[in-house]
Protein backbone atom coordinates (compact mmCIF):
# COMPACT_ATOMS: atom_id res chain seq x y z
CA UNK A 1 0.00 0.00 0.00
CA UNK A 2 2.87 2.36 0.79
CA UNK A 3 4.35 1.73 -2.65
CA UNK A 4 0.99 2.53 -4.27
CA UNK A 5 0.67 5.82 -2.36
CA UNK A 6 4.27 6.67 -3.28
CA UNK A 7 3.53 6.02 -6.96
CA UNK A 8 0.47 8.31 -6.84
CA UNK A 9 2.62 11.07 -5.32
CA UNK A 10 5.22 10.56 -8.03
CA UNK A 11 2.55 10.87 -10.72
CA UNK A 12 1.30 14.19 -9.37
CA UNK A 13 4.83 15.49 -8.95
CA UNK A 14 5.40 15.29 -12.74
CA UNK A 15 3.81 18.51 -13.96
CA UNK A 16 3.26 17.48 -17.59
CA UNK A 17 1.78 14.12 -16.62
CA UNK A 18 -0.55 15.78 -14.10
CA UNK A 19 -1.83 18.21 -16.73
CA UNK A 20 -2.41 15.39 -19.22
CA UNK A 21 -4.35 13.32 -16.67
CA UNK A 22 -6.55 16.27 -15.66
CA UNK A 23 -7.16 17.13 -19.34
CA UNK A 24 -8.14 13.52 -20.06
CA UNK A 25 -10.54 13.37 -17.10
CA UNK A 26 -12.22 16.63 -18.13
CA UNK A 27 -12.84 15.42 -21.69
CA UNK A 28 -14.17 12.11 -20.39
CA UNK A 29 -16.54 14.07 -18.13
CA UNK A 30 -17.78 16.04 -21.16
CA UNK A 31 -18.40 12.77 -23.00
CA UNK A 32 -20.34 11.26 -20.10
CA UNK A 33 -22.49 14.39 -19.69
CA UNK A 34 -23.24 14.39 -23.41
CA UNK A 35 -24.37 10.75 -23.28
CA UNK A 36 -27.26 11.84 -21.00
CA UNK A 37 -28.54 14.62 -23.29
CA UNK A 38 -31.70 13.18 -24.88
CA UNK A 39 -32.41 13.77 -28.57
CA UNK A 40 -35.01 16.58 -29.02
CA UNK A 41 -38.54 15.25 -29.52
CA UNK A 42 -37.94 11.93 -27.78
CA UNK A 43 -40.19 10.99 -24.85
CA UNK A 44 -37.65 10.09 -22.18
CA UNK A 45 -40.32 8.70 -19.81
CA UNK A 46 -41.39 6.15 -22.43
CA UNK A 47 -37.77 5.20 -23.02
CA UNK A 48 -37.24 4.37 -19.35
CA UNK A 49 -40.05 1.84 -19.39
CA UNK A 50 -39.52 0.40 -22.87
CA UNK A 51 -36.19 0.91 -24.64
CA UNK A 52 -33.84 0.55 -21.68
CA UNK A 53 -34.52 -3.16 -21.42
CA UNK A 54 -33.17 -4.20 -24.79
CA UNK A 55 -31.30 -7.47 -24.64
CA UNK A 56 -29.26 -9.58 -26.97
CA UNK A 57 -27.20 -7.83 -29.61
CA UNK A 58 -28.87 -4.44 -29.02
CA UNK A 59 -27.99 -4.71 -25.35
CA UNK A 60 -24.37 -5.33 -26.30
CA UNK A 61 -24.35 -2.25 -28.55
CA UNK A 62 -25.80 -0.23 -25.68
CA UNK A 63 -22.93 -1.36 -23.44
CA UNK A 64 -20.32 -0.13 -25.95
CA UNK A 65 -22.12 3.25 -26.12
CA UNK A 66 -22.08 3.65 -22.35
CA UNK A 67 -25.90 3.47 -22.17
CA UNK A 68 -26.36 6.36 -24.64
CA UNK A 69 -27.82 4.00 -27.26
CA UNK A 70 -30.73 3.01 -25.02
CA UNK A 71 -31.29 6.59 -23.82
CA UNK A 72 -31.53 7.92 -27.41
CA UNK A 73 -28.89 10.48 -26.57
CA UNK A 74 -27.36 12.97 -28.99
CA UNK A 75 -24.31 10.69 -28.75
CA UNK A 76 -26.28 7.47 -29.27
CA UNK A 77 -24.16 6.25 -32.18
CA UNK A 78 -21.01 6.82 -30.13
CA UNK A 79 -17.58 6.19 -31.61
CA UNK A 80 -18.52 2.97 -33.44
CA UNK A 81 -19.19 4.59 -36.87
CA UNK A 82 -15.64 5.95 -36.78
CA UNK A 83 -14.32 2.50 -35.84
CA UNK A 84 -16.28 0.99 -38.74
CA UNK A 85 -14.87 3.59 -41.15
CA UNK A 86 -11.34 2.91 -39.90
CA UNK A 87 -11.79 -0.82 -40.49
CA UNK A 88 -13.10 -0.18 -44.01
CA UNK A 89 -10.11 2.05 -44.82
CA UNK A 90 -7.74 -0.56 -43.43
CA UNK A 91 -9.27 -3.24 -45.65
CA UNK A 92 -9.22 -0.90 -48.68
CA UNK A 93 -5.50 -0.50 -48.09
CA UNK A 94 -5.11 -4.17 -48.97
CA UNK A 95 -6.96 -4.00 -52.29
CA UNK A 96 -7.01 -0.41 -53.60
CA UNK A 97 -3.69 0.85 -55.05
CA UNK A 98 -4.56 4.51 -54.38
CA UNK A 99 -4.99 3.83 -50.65
CA UNK A 100 -1.81 1.75 -50.61
CA UNK A 101 0.05 4.70 -52.14
CA UNK A 102 -1.24 7.03 -49.40
CA UNK A 103 -0.10 4.55 -46.75
CA UNK A 104 3.43 4.75 -48.14
CA UNK A 105 3.51 8.57 -48.19
CA UNK A 106 4.26 8.90 -44.49
CA UNK A 107 2.73 11.75 -42.49
CA UNK A 108 1.05 13.43 -45.49
CA UNK A 109 -0.52 10.12 -46.52
CA UNK A 110 -1.73 9.51 -42.98
CA UNK A 111 -3.48 12.89 -42.97
CA UNK A 112 -5.22 12.06 -46.25
CA UNK A 113 -6.38 8.70 -44.90
CA UNK A 114 -7.67 10.35 -41.71
CA UNK A 115 -9.60 12.88 -43.79
CA UNK A 116 -11.18 10.13 -45.90
CA UNK A 117 -11.98 8.18 -42.73
CA UNK A 118 -13.90 11.16 -41.34
CA UNK A 119 -15.86 11.58 -44.57
CA UNK A 120 -16.73 7.88 -44.53
CA UNK A 121 -17.74 8.21 -40.86
CA UNK A 122 -20.29 10.88 -41.82
CA UNK A 123 -21.76 8.62 -44.53
CA UNK A 124 -22.03 5.70 -42.09
CA UNK A 125 -23.62 7.98 -39.47
CA UNK A 126 -26.33 9.08 -41.91
CA UNK A 127 -27.36 5.50 -42.72
CA UNK A 128 -27.08 4.28 -39.13
CA UNK A 129 -28.91 7.37 -37.85
CA UNK A 130 -31.91 6.77 -40.12
CA UNK A 131 -32.06 3.09 -39.13
CA UNK A 132 -31.66 3.94 -35.45
CA UNK A 133 -34.43 6.57 -35.51
CA UNK A 134 -36.71 4.22 -37.41
CA UNK A 135 -36.27 1.71 -34.60
CA UNK A 136 -36.86 4.09 -31.68
CA UNK A 137 -39.08 6.81 -33.16
CA UNK A 138 -41.50 4.56 -35.04
CA UNK A 139 -43.86 3.99 -32.05
CA UNK A 140 -45.74 7.22 -31.40
CA UNK A 141 -45.10 6.98 -27.66
CA UNK A 142 -41.36 7.46 -28.21
CA UNK A 143 -41.24 10.63 -30.27
CA UNK A 144 -43.45 13.68 -30.42
CA UNK A 145 -42.71 14.93 -33.95
CA UNK A 146 -42.05 11.77 -35.98
CA UNK A 147 -44.44 12.89 -38.72
CA UNK A 148 -42.31 15.94 -39.45
CA UNK A 149 -39.61 15.54 -42.14
CA UNK A 150 -37.74 18.40 -40.49
CA UNK A 151 -37.49 16.39 -37.25
CA UNK A 152 -35.97 13.43 -39.09
CA UNK A 153 -33.43 15.65 -40.87
CA UNK A 154 -32.41 17.53 -37.75
CA UNK A 155 -32.19 14.31 -35.72
CA UNK A 156 -29.88 12.65 -38.25
CA UNK A 157 -27.73 15.78 -38.32
CA UNK A 158 -27.57 15.86 -34.50
CA UNK A 159 -26.63 12.16 -34.27
CA UNK A 160 -23.92 12.64 -36.91
CA UNK A 161 -22.59 15.73 -35.12
CA UNK A 162 -22.59 13.78 -31.85
CA UNK A 163 -20.42 11.05 -33.32
CA UNK A 164 -18.01 13.54 -34.88
CA UNK A 165 -17.77 15.38 -31.55
CA UNK A 166 -16.96 12.12 -29.73
CA UNK A 167 -14.33 11.40 -32.41
CA UNK A 168 -12.85 14.86 -31.86
CA UNK A 169 -12.72 14.21 -28.10
CA UNK A 170 -10.86 10.96 -28.74
CA UNK A 171 -8.31 12.67 -30.98
CA UNK A 172 -7.74 15.42 -28.40
CA UNK A 173 -7.15 12.84 -25.66
CA UNK A 174 -4.61 11.06 -27.87
CA UNK A 175 -2.77 14.30 -28.66
CA UNK A 176 -2.87 16.08 -25.32
CA UNK A 177 -4.01 13.50 -22.78
CA UNK A 178 -3.01 10.02 -21.64
CA UNK A 179 -3.71 6.85 -23.61
CA UNK A 180 -5.39 6.19 -26.95
CA UNK A 181 -8.41 8.48 -26.98
CA UNK A 182 -10.74 6.41 -29.16
CA UNK A 183 -10.06 3.18 -27.26
CA UNK A 184 -10.32 5.02 -23.94
CA UNK A 185 -13.77 6.39 -24.81
CA UNK A 186 -14.99 2.88 -25.67
CA UNK A 187 -13.55 1.52 -22.42
CA UNK A 188 -15.15 4.32 -20.36
CA UNK A 189 -18.49 3.59 -22.01
CA UNK A 190 -18.18 -0.07 -21.05
CA UNK A 191 -17.02 0.67 -17.50
CA UNK A 192 -19.94 3.07 -17.01
CA UNK A 193 -22.26 0.05 -17.02
CA UNK A 194 -20.26 -1.88 -14.41
CA UNK A 195 -21.61 -0.23 -11.20
CA UNK A 196 -25.29 -0.78 -12.12
CA UNK A 197 -24.57 -4.30 -13.40
CA UNK A 198 -22.77 -5.17 -10.17
CA UNK A 199 -25.55 -3.67 -8.05
CA UNK A 200 -28.11 -5.63 -10.05
CA UNK A 201 -26.22 -8.86 -9.48
CA UNK A 202 -25.81 -7.99 -5.78
CA UNK A 203 -29.56 -7.39 -5.43
CA UNK A 204 -30.37 -10.62 -7.27
CA UNK A 205 -28.09 -12.72 -5.08
CA UNK A 206 -29.16 -10.94 -1.87
CA UNK A 207 -32.84 -11.68 -2.54
CA UNK A 208 -32.06 -15.35 -3.20
CA UNK A 209 -29.66 -15.77 -0.28
CA UNK A 210 -26.71 -16.37 -2.58
CA UNK A 211 -24.04 -13.98 -1.28
CA UNK A 212 -21.52 -16.82 -1.24
CA UNK A 213 -22.23 -17.35 -4.93
CA UNK A 214 -21.62 -13.65 -5.55
CA UNK A 215 -18.21 -13.98 -3.90
CA UNK A 216 -17.46 -17.00 -6.12
CA UNK A 217 -18.50 -14.98 -9.18
CA UNK A 218 -16.13 -12.13 -8.26
CA UNK A 219 -13.25 -14.57 -7.75
CA UNK A 220 -14.01 -16.18 -11.11
CA UNK A 221 -14.06 -12.72 -12.74
CA UNK A 222 -10.65 -11.99 -11.22
CA UNK A 223 -9.11 -15.11 -12.76
CA UNK A 224 -10.74 -14.38 -16.13
CA UNK A 225 -9.14 -10.92 -16.08
CA UNK A 226 -5.76 -12.49 -15.26
CA UNK A 227 -6.09 -14.89 -18.21
CA UNK A 228 -7.08 -12.00 -20.49
CA UNK A 229 -4.01 -10.03 -19.41
CA UNK A 230 -1.85 -13.03 -20.26
CA UNK A 231 -3.48 -13.24 -23.69
CA UNK A 232 -2.99 -9.53 -24.38
CA UNK A 233 0.60 -9.40 -23.09
CA UNK A 234 1.79 -12.80 -24.31
CA UNK A 235 4.64 -12.24 -26.77
CA UNK A 236 7.12 -14.44 -28.64
CA UNK A 237 10.30 -12.43 -29.12
CA UNK A 238 12.47 -13.15 -32.15
CA UNK A 239 16.06 -11.95 -31.49
CA UNK A 240 17.52 -9.70 -34.18
CA UNK A 241 21.15 -8.63 -34.60
CA UNK A 242 22.31 -5.63 -36.61
CA UNK A 243 25.70 -5.89 -38.29
CA UNK A 244 28.50 -3.38 -37.66
CA UNK A 245 28.47 -0.38 -39.99
CA UNK A 246 31.02 2.18 -41.16
CA UNK A 247 29.69 5.65 -40.39
CA UNK A 248 31.08 8.81 -42.03
CA UNK A 249 31.79 11.57 -39.54
CA UNK A 250 32.76 15.22 -39.86
CA UNK A 251 36.20 15.90 -41.23
CA UNK A 252 36.08 12.89 -43.54
CA UNK A 253 36.80 10.46 -40.73
CA UNK A 254 35.12 7.07 -40.58
CA UNK A 255 34.05 5.10 -37.54
CA UNK A 256 32.62 1.64 -37.03
CA UNK A 257 29.27 1.58 -35.24
CA UNK A 258 28.70 -1.20 -32.72
CA UNK A 259 26.36 -4.07 -33.53
CA UNK A 260 22.91 -3.70 -31.98
CA UNK A 261 20.57 -6.30 -30.56
CA UNK A 262 16.80 -6.01 -30.60
CA UNK A 263 13.86 -8.27 -31.27
CA UNK A 264 10.65 -8.65 -33.29
CA UNK A 265 7.67 -9.04 -30.93
CA UNK A 266 5.10 -11.54 -32.20
CA UNK A 267 2.04 -11.47 -29.95
CA UNK A 268 0.01 -14.58 -29.23
CA UNK A 269 -3.07 -12.52 -30.07
CA UNK A 270 -1.71 -10.46 -32.95
CA UNK A 271 -5.19 -9.60 -34.26
CA UNK A 272 -6.43 -7.96 -31.04
CA UNK A 273 -10.24 -7.65 -30.81
CA UNK A 274 -10.75 -7.36 -34.57
CA UNK A 275 -11.80 -11.03 -35.08
CA UNK A 276 -14.53 -10.61 -32.44
CA UNK A 277 -15.75 -7.38 -34.04
CA UNK A 278 -15.87 -8.99 -37.50
CA UNK A 279 -17.61 -12.08 -36.12
CA UNK A 280 -20.22 -10.04 -34.24
CA UNK A 281 -20.99 -8.04 -37.39
CA UNK A 282 -21.43 -11.24 -39.38
CA UNK A 283 -23.66 -12.83 -36.72
CA UNK A 284 -26.42 -10.38 -37.68
CA UNK A 285 -26.99 -12.38 -40.90
CA UNK A 286 -27.89 -15.80 -39.43
CA UNK A 287 -30.10 -14.00 -36.88
CA UNK A 288 -32.39 -13.02 -39.77
CA UNK A 289 -32.42 -16.59 -41.14
CA UNK A 290 -33.08 -18.53 -37.92
CA UNK A 291 -34.47 -17.22 -34.63
CA UNK A 292 -32.14 -19.50 -32.67
CA UNK A 293 -29.25 -17.17 -33.45
CA UNK A 294 -30.96 -14.30 -31.62
CA UNK A 295 -30.10 -15.94 -28.31
CA UNK A 296 -26.59 -14.73 -27.43
CA UNK A 297 -26.45 -17.34 -24.66
CA UNK A 298 -27.60 -20.19 -26.92
CA UNK A 299 -25.47 -23.15 -28.04
CA UNK A 300 -25.67 -22.65 -31.81
CA UNK A 301 -25.02 -18.91 -31.63
CA UNK A 302 -21.85 -19.39 -29.59
CA UNK A 303 -20.64 -22.39 -31.62
CA UNK A 304 -20.82 -20.42 -34.88
CA UNK A 305 -19.42 -17.35 -33.09
CA UNK A 306 -16.42 -19.35 -31.84
CA UNK A 307 -15.69 -20.82 -35.30
CA UNK A 308 -15.93 -17.39 -36.95
CA UNK A 309 -13.49 -15.90 -34.44
CA UNK A 310 -10.91 -18.60 -35.13
CA UNK A 311 -11.33 -18.10 -38.89
CA UNK A 312 -11.11 -14.30 -38.69
CA UNK A 313 -8.03 -14.51 -36.46
CA UNK A 314 -6.21 -16.41 -39.22
CA UNK A 315 -7.59 -14.02 -41.86
CA UNK A 316 -6.76 -10.78 -40.06
CA UNK A 317 -3.28 -11.94 -39.08
CA UNK A 318 -2.61 -12.99 -42.67
CA UNK A 319 -3.56 -9.58 -44.08
CA UNK A 320 -1.70 -7.53 -41.45
CA UNK A 321 1.45 -9.64 -41.03
CA UNK A 322 3.54 -10.19 -44.15
CA UNK A 323 6.60 -12.39 -43.43
CA UNK A 324 8.14 -11.58 -46.84
CA UNK A 325 7.89 -7.84 -46.20
CA UNK A 326 9.33 -8.24 -42.71
CA UNK A 327 12.25 -10.28 -44.09
CA UNK A 328 12.91 -7.64 -46.77
CA UNK A 329 12.92 -4.84 -44.17
CA UNK A 330 15.40 -6.77 -42.04
CA UNK A 331 17.64 -7.34 -45.05
CA UNK A 332 17.55 -3.68 -46.12
CA UNK A 333 18.40 -2.49 -42.61
CA UNK A 334 21.34 -4.88 -42.37
CA UNK A 335 19.72 -6.90 -39.58
CA UNK A 336 19.35 -10.67 -39.36
CA UNK A 337 17.96 -13.40 -37.14
CA UNK A 338 20.79 -15.47 -35.61
CA UNK A 339 21.05 -18.88 -37.25
CA UNK A 340 18.70 -18.00 -40.12
CA UNK A 341 19.81 -16.88 -43.59
CA UNK A 342 18.43 -13.51 -44.77
CA UNK A 343 15.72 -13.40 -47.40
CA UNK A 344 13.50 -16.38 -48.13
CA UNK A 345 14.69 -18.45 -45.16
CA UNK A 346 13.92 -15.59 -42.78
CA UNK A 347 10.41 -15.22 -44.22
CA UNK A 348 9.77 -18.96 -43.83
CA UNK A 349 11.08 -18.88 -40.26
CA UNK A 350 8.76 -15.98 -39.30
CA UNK A 351 5.82 -17.62 -41.09
CA UNK A 352 6.33 -20.89 -39.19
CA UNK A 353 6.39 -19.05 -35.86
CA UNK A 354 3.21 -17.16 -36.75
CA UNK A 355 1.46 -20.40 -37.69
CA UNK A 356 2.32 -21.94 -34.32
CA UNK A 357 1.15 -18.85 -32.44
CA UNK A 358 -2.15 -18.26 -34.28
CA UNK A 359 -3.80 -21.58 -33.36
CA UNK A 360 -3.58 -21.33 -29.55
CA UNK A 361 -4.15 -17.58 -29.73
CA UNK A 362 -7.32 -17.92 -31.83
CA UNK A 363 -8.72 -20.72 -29.65
CA UNK A 364 -8.01 -18.75 -26.48
CA UNK A 365 -9.59 -15.64 -28.02
CA UNK A 366 -12.68 -17.63 -29.00
CA UNK A 367 -13.04 -19.05 -25.48
CA UNK A 368 -12.83 -15.60 -23.91
CA UNK A 369 -15.41 -14.31 -26.44
CA UNK A 370 -18.04 -16.91 -25.46
CA UNK A 371 -17.43 -16.79 -21.70
CA UNK A 372 -20.33 -14.32 -21.19
CA UNK A 373 -22.70 -17.01 -22.50
CA UNK A 374 -21.45 -19.43 -19.84
CA UNK A 375 -21.94 -16.72 -17.24
CA UNK A 376 -25.55 -16.12 -18.36
CA UNK A 377 -26.28 -19.84 -18.21
CA UNK A 378 -24.88 -19.83 -14.67
CA UNK A 379 -27.71 -17.46 -13.62
CA UNK A 380 -25.61 -14.29 -13.78
CA UNK A 381 -27.61 -11.30 -15.02
CA UNK A 382 -26.90 -10.31 -18.62
CA UNK A 383 -25.43 -6.89 -17.83
CA UNK A 384 -22.84 -8.30 -15.42
CA UNK A 385 -22.18 -11.38 -17.56
CA UNK A 386 -20.80 -9.25 -20.42
CA UNK A 387 -17.83 -8.35 -18.21
CA UNK A 388 -16.73 -11.99 -18.08
CA UNK A 389 -15.24 -11.89 -21.55
CA UNK A 390 -15.81 -10.85 -25.13
CA UNK A 391 -14.94 -7.53 -26.67
CA UNK A 392 -15.78 -5.65 -23.48
CA UNK A 393 -13.14 -7.34 -21.34
CA UNK A 394 -10.48 -7.37 -24.06
CA UNK A 395 -10.91 -3.66 -24.77
CA UNK A 396 -10.83 -2.74 -21.08
CA UNK A 397 -7.72 -4.80 -20.38
CA UNK A 398 -5.93 -3.51 -23.48
CA UNK A 399 -6.79 0.13 -22.75
CA UNK A 400 -5.78 -0.11 -19.09
CA UNK A 401 -2.43 -1.70 -19.96
CA UNK A 402 -1.75 0.86 -22.71
CA UNK A 403 -2.61 3.77 -20.40
CA UNK A 404 -0.45 2.39 -17.60
CA UNK A 405 2.37 1.99 -20.12
CA UNK A 406 2.22 5.67 -21.05
CA UNK A 407 2.03 6.80 -17.42
CA UNK A 408 4.99 4.59 -16.55
CA UNK A 409 6.98 6.03 -19.45
CA UNK A 410 6.54 9.53 -18.02
CA UNK A 411 7.62 8.31 -14.59
CA UNK A 412 10.71 6.56 -15.93
CA UNK A 413 11.66 9.60 -18.00
CA UNK A 414 11.39 11.68 -14.84
CA UNK A 415 13.71 9.27 -12.99
CA UNK A 416 10.95 7.77 -10.86
CA UNK A 417 10.26 4.06 -10.38
CA UNK A 418 7.67 2.56 -12.70
CA UNK A 419 4.18 1.44 -11.77
CA UNK A 420 5.35 -2.14 -11.44
CA UNK A 421 7.92 -3.23 -8.91
CA UNK A 422 11.22 -3.84 -10.61
CA UNK A 423 10.87 -1.24 -13.36
CA UNK A 424 9.14 -1.48 -16.72
CA UNK A 425 6.04 -3.55 -17.41
CA UNK A 426 6.67 -6.96 -18.89
CA UNK A 427 5.47 -8.06 -22.29
CA UNK A 428 5.74 -4.62 -23.83
CA UNK A 429 6.85 -3.86 -27.34
CA UNK A 430 10.33 -2.38 -27.49
CA UNK A 431 10.59 0.95 -29.38
CA UNK A 432 13.73 0.01 -31.30
CA UNK A 433 12.31 -3.17 -32.77
CA UNK A 434 13.28 -3.18 -36.46
CA UNK A 435 9.84 -4.15 -37.68
CA UNK A 436 6.83 -2.24 -36.39
CA UNK A 437 3.78 -4.27 -35.47
CA UNK A 438 0.27 -3.26 -36.59
CA UNK A 439 -1.81 -1.60 -33.91
CA UNK A 440 -5.32 -2.81 -33.21
CA UNK A 441 -8.14 -1.49 -31.13
Can you describe this structure?
This protein is mostly helical. It folds into 2 domains: 12-192, Orthogonal Bundle (Preprotein translocase SecY subunit), CATH 1.10.3370; 193-441, SecY subunit domain (Preprotein translocase SecY subunit, Orthogonal Bundle). Helices cover 66% and strands 6% of the residues. It has helices at residues 2-13, 15-34, 44-49, 56-64, 68-71, 80-95, 97-103, 107-136, 149-176, 181-191, 194-207, 211-233, 274-282, 284-289, 299-320, 323-332, 344-377, 382-385, 390-413, and strands at 235-242, 245-248, 254-257, 260-267, 335-336. The strands form 2 sheets. It has a 3-stranded antiparallel sheet. It has a two-stranded antiparallel sheet with strand order 2-3. Helix 8 (107-136) runs antiparallel to helix 9 (149-176), helix 10 (181-191) packs across helix 19 and helix 16 packs across helix 17. The longest helix has 34 residues, at 344-377. It is globular. Keywords: Cell membrane, Membrane, Protein transport, Translocation, Transmembrane, Transmembrane helix, Transport. Its main location: membrane.
Instruction: Tally the beta strands.
Output: 5
Look at the structure and give the CATH class of the largest domain: Mainly Alpha
CA radius of gyration is: 24 Å
By secondary-structure content and strand pairing, the structural class works out as mainly alpha
Topology as a string of helices (H) and strands (E): HHHHHHHHHHHHEEEEHHHHEHHH
CATH topology (level 3) name of the largest domain:
Preprotein translocase SecY subunit
Give the domain tally.
2
Amino acid sequence: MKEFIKTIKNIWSVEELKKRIIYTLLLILVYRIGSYVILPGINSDALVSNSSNDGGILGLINIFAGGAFGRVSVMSLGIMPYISASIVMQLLGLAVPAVQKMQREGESGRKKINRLTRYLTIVICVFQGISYLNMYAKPSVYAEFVDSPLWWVQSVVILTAGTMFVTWLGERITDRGVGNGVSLIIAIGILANLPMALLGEFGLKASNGGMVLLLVELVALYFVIILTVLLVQGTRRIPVHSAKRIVNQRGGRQAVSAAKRSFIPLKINQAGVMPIIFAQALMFLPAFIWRGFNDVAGFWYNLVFFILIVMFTYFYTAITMNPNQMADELKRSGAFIPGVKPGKNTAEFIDSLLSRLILPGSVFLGIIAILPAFAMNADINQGFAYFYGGTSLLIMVGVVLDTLQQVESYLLNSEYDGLMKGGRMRGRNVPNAPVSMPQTI
